[in-house]
Amino acid sequence: TDPSALLGNLAEALATGAIEVVDLTHTLDQDFPVIVLPPEFGQCARFRMEEVSAYDHRGPAWKWHNFTCSEHTGTHFDAPSHWISGRDVPNGSVDEIPAERFIGPVCVIDCSDGAAADEDFELTPEIIEAWEAEHGRIPTESWVLMRTDWSKRRGAAYLNMREDGAHSPGPTPAAIRLLVDERGIRGFGTETVGTDAGQGSHYTPPYPAHFYLHGAGRYGLQCLNNLDRLPPTGAMLIATPLKIKNGTGSPLRVVALVPGR
Ligand SMILES: O=C(O)C(=O)c1ccccc1S
Ligand SMILES: [Mn+2]
User: Alpha-carbon distance 25 to 38, whole Å?
Assistant: First the structure.
């Protein structure tokens, strides 16, 4: 088909609502939780914003702010250079990743019932294969999102910290190796504060999602929202990080193009 016609069809489908745009992003504000690491390590900055002017003596006709945050604050993108396993991956920082990698098909594995019953729920190869039995094999270069409805949690329940650290769902090492090594996914996304489970430091290797995804030059998305509005297959994900020089990640707006109901 003529590529110009394809783009014309997309424009028409967006205008008529035949294709919906679903926002998968949380609002960035100072209250949104950030990952808490063991106290001996550097910590993630929360989002902070200061007003520079507001149509006043500081700027009579304009309003603007300065803001500060981590590369890993809020709904954000993880680049391969974020992890030691990806330190030597070509095009490993957000400014070097080719732009065509930021738009692609997306599969959504619904683990919401499991996560509701067990805060340390694990995505396993068996769950992935059962999903494929119903929806078909996960295509190479797909994004795979683990739906847990964790984005509906508020306050302390989101990080869900206890005396031994965070308790939140995530993939086992075998699950992430199946997705990365066998299915060749583009990236893995979660609603939780990390692509790894809250207790991910206790796996071998520690933080297996970060280790295997980024070691293979693949990407992560964290703190996603509204995954319950996505179909298991058939949507397209648009996730374009800020072009930060040598950046290991970036807060970003993530949206999905979804066939209208
Ligand atoms: O990438 C992140 O935001 C994240 O989850 C993380 C960041 C730094 C250290 C460990 C982890 S587990
Ligand atoms: Mn991150």
Answer: 27
